Amino acid sequence: MAALRVPLVDLQAQYRSLKPEIMEAFGEVLDEMQLFLGPRTRAFEQQFASYCECLYGVGVSSGTDALVLALRACDIGPGDEVITVSNTFIATVEAIAMVGARPVFVDVDPITYLMDWRQLEGVLSEHTKAILPVHLYGHAAEMGPIMEFARAHDLRVIEDASQAHGATYNGRRVGSFGDVGCFSLYYSKNLGAFGEAGICTTNNEELAERLRMVRDHGSRVRYQHEVIGGNYRLDELQAAVLLLKMPYLEQWNQARQQHARFYTERLGDIVAQVPQFRPWATHVYCYYVVQVEGRDEFRMSLEHEGIGTNVHYPVPLHLQPACAKYGYTRGMLPVTEAASERIVSLPMYPELTAEQLELVVMTVQKALLAGAHQA
Ligand SMILES: *Cc1c(COP(=O)(O)O)cnc(C)c1O
Question: Which of 17, 53, 57, 267 could link 45 by a cystine bridge, Cβ 3.0 to 4.6 Å?
Answer without folding.
Answer: 57
